Amino acid sequence: MKNYTLLAFLFFSISNFAQIKGTITDEKGNPLPFVSVFEENTYSGTTSNEQGKYQLNVKEPGKNKITFQYLGFKTQKRTIPSDSKAITLDVKMPEESFALNEVVIDPKNNPAIAIIKSAIANKKDNSDKTARYTADFYSKGMFKVKDLPKKILGKKVDLGPDMASNLDSTGTGILYLSETISKIIFEKPDKLKEKIIASKISGNNKGYSYNTASLSTYDFYDNTLDFDVKMISPIADNAFSYYKYQLEGSFYDDNNQQIYKIKVIPKRDKEPVFEGYLYIVDDSFAIYAIDLNIKGYRMKNEFTEAMTLKQSFSYNSKNKIWTKNAQTLDFNAGIFGVKFSGKFNYVYSNYEFPPSFEKKTFGNEVVAFELNANKKDDAFWNQIRPIPLTIEESSDYNKKDSLQTIRKSKKYTDSVDAKNNKFKFTDILMGYDYKNTFKKYSFDYKGLLNITSLSFNTVQGFNLDSGFSFKKWNEEQGKSTSISTTFNYGFSDERFRAVGEFRHKFNNINYATIGVSGGTKVAQFNSFEPISKLINSISSLFFKDNYMKLYNLEYAQVNYSQNILNGVNLVGKVAYEQRKPLYNTTDYSFFKRDDVYSSNNPLAPNDFTTPAFDTHHLFKAAISTRINFGNKYISRPDGRYNIKDEKYPTVFLAFEKAFAASEKKYEFERLGASVLYDLSLGNKGTLGMNLRAGKFFNAENISFIDYRHFNGNQTHIGTSERYLNVFNLMPYYAKSTNDSYFEMHLEHNDTGFIMNKIPLLNLLKSTMNLGFHSLAIPDRKPYTEFTVGLDNLGFGKFKIFRLDYVHSYQGGIQQNGVVFGLKILNVLD
CB-based contacts of 683: which residues, under 8 Å, 6+ apart? Predict the structure, then answer.
């Protein structure tokens, strides 16, 4: 009932508006895009589109003048007759004439410095004026691609039939177009509540746009702004350490206030800085407008070539507040010769500035969607949309929305599936996929020659996987069910192994999920699998170093997980495990064939007959929880989507118990806890922390499998983005324990704060990492590592390398080494 009442109110309100439409051009007739259009001394406004078209709903025609404001052009004002309900008003805007002599007082001094100093000194007062508000918010986002090839690196580019039809013969077109209308409540620094009234995605009437106010707040009164790194505001407290300024002139706006146009010039090219123009109001030194560029490499995003961020502010003489009424964010990106572009437009209107909010105004829910927010018809959007669609955008909506009904039909999906589901004889070897889009299920067969699964270890020799999987899903209800089985065959030990798994997710609200699995497989002694199959295969075949140590596991397991509270996830597991030792069955390698592999016993690498443990079985039960403090979330009709609050750590707690073992000595209990936290140091980088501790009980004679193993690295190859879960020079099983333990991993990434300032080295566009790693266990000297290295290394846009020098120390024994990081391995394995 409330929704019908709201819609009726909106319709009644709209019907009492006077709608003004028109085109804004310069004096030569060229359309002017993104001109700010608003009622004088109100917060009702919009902007023109790329073709200079605009539309504005005016509550009381004749009462206020309509203001047209655009950087570089003289502000224009028009009065609308009070008896008008619909009117076309075209406006021509003459170019602004900038006067420099009015502001130059002393030619020996740079007048821009004094203006920026005043802006910095007054920014708290100016920021506080808009520290608390409610407003209407509109956003429109579009992604386009240009010259998309049919193949990249020999691989066919498959966008699917729906996406591919959006492109023309040259591989150019709109990939994504969406809009949102919402009401926001905001309080600085970061409290936000957003209610999305309407959401629209081109070609998808079931989609919910992610164009939210929470993802578009850029406040230049803050010292830094969040992009991929912390970008320095041109009026930050320390702005003079990063920028030079040049006054290019001034002009007077329609309120007879003098506006300074200041060019913002970076002192060092590789720093996280903007460049462009900043417009400052005299006397109050508030921001009048922003027109700044961001180069991709300055924010450590090599695939982005450049971004342009523009903001315009309007003045209300009644409360003397400058407020942001429009914002645009454009970017260009590219890879493999393919060009991408994006454009986001934002309009803020109908501001209110209450003195305070009620205590329970803000909560953990930051964004909520009204029921049927994605079902609004064209008539609704045509009335309420503040920025008219361009011809290209209208065409995209019309084309995709008209095709949507066809593409969702059973006849169409069946025809597409029939084409893709054709079975070929070679599929027996290479694999086969079957999909029924309309009934929402799929089947997958990996093939007898699943080359991507091929790996080598000294227990199985070369081994290969195959298998089947079935999946059924329902997006609207958030349900999914999957059944899979994986077969593995080792060519050296000549043994076939198989595991199966059933998994069902009940919903996208609390993400309740149950899983059942079992079978036979080879498993690493360290269940965290510190050495990947790919790295172990290379290490063994090329260097005769078989670091992966394996045992045979026959098991049956049931697990259940669910979010039981906001930010609290609980996981329970019960398993039966039968463990058997394994031995090397091959001495094969590509090189060093006269060398001998170490044994498969991690406790005795030179003993090829004694196993690391005796065959046994036991039951295991475990319960663990993950707690994200301050967790926020987005509520949508199809689910809840969590947003971690980076100001707080993530805490993990776990209890594990082994019972009903073949021998009593294998039974034990273990308590464990860990804390993960990223401490933001502003533009000086991020300090990552991983603290982990635990304690075994009644575990004096347990199996070596159940010891606490720590992630070592003897290959000198790093595969992860960050080294917050690994000791870079420590042998894989040298420090394993069945007692108490404490490990600490700290890593500071300067995000270029230091490297950007070092001549020549700054040409690398890299970042510096400083690390500290420590392990403490009873009756042994603490093990410690110190690391220093460079990250974000590579060629052109591909910054996939990292290089670290590592020094380790334990009880007077010191080691030094170099770890070469190849982050792409983490994806390939």
Answer: 223, 224, 229, 230, 231, 232, 272, 751, 753
Unique residue bearing structure tokens 């077969």: 487
- The set of residues, in sequence order, having a beta carbon less than 8 Å from that of 526 and lying 6+ positions away, is 709, 710, 711, 732, 733
Contact by Cβ (8 Å): 127, 219: yes
Is it the case that residue 750 has pLDDT exceeding 80? yes
H-run or E-run covering 592: none
Cα-based distances in Å from 776 to 16, 669, 694, 773, 786: 73, 20, 11, 10, 15
Which 3 state secondary structure label does DSSP give 757? helix
Averaged pLDDT for residues 652-672: 96
Helix (H) or strand (E) holding 809: strand 798-810
Structure tokens at 713: 């690295």
By the 8 A CB rule, do 547 and 732 touch? yes
Distance CA 710, CA 785 (A): 14
Confidence bin at 737 (pLDDT 50/70/90): very high
How far from 706 is each of 289, 668, 700, CA to CA, in Å? 62, 9, 11
Report the alpha-carbon distance of residue 91 to residue 76 in Å, rounded: 8
Q: Is 420 helix (H, G, I), strand (E, B) or coil?
A: helix
pLDDT of residue 2: 38
- DSSP letter, residue 95: B
Contact between 310 and 32 (Cβ < 8 Å): no
DSSP 36-64: EEEETTSS-EEE--TTSEEEEEESSTTTS
The answer to whether the beta carbons of residues 257 and 282 sit under 8 Å apart is: yes
Q: Count CB atoms within 10 A of the CB of residue 491.
A: 14
More confident residue, 14 or 376: 376
**pLDDT of the residue at 166:** 66
Cα separation, 787 vs 729, whole angstroms: 10
Q: Any bridge partners for residue 182, and if so which?
A: 137, 196
- The pTM (predicted TM-score) of the whole model is 0.87
How many Å apart are CA 676 and CA 682, to the nearest integer? 19
Q: Quickly list DSSP for 329-395.
A: EEEEEEETTEEEEEEEEEEEEEEE--S---TTS--SEEEEE-TTGGG--HHHHHHH-SSPPPHHHHH
Q: Is there a contact between 20 and 1 (Cβ–Cβ < 8 Å)?
A: no
- Report the candidate in 773, 778, 785 with the shortest Cα–Cα distance to residue 743: 773
Pairing of strands 73-79, 65-70: antiparallel
Tokens of 586: 């091959």
pLDDT tens for 7-65 read 333 333 444 567 888 999 999 999 999 999 988 888 888 999 999 999 988 877 666 78
The pLDDT-based confidence of 3 (bands split at 50, 70, 90) is: very low
The two tokens of residue 333 are: 């990106």
Lowest mean pLDDT among 129-133, 209-213, 472-476: 209-213
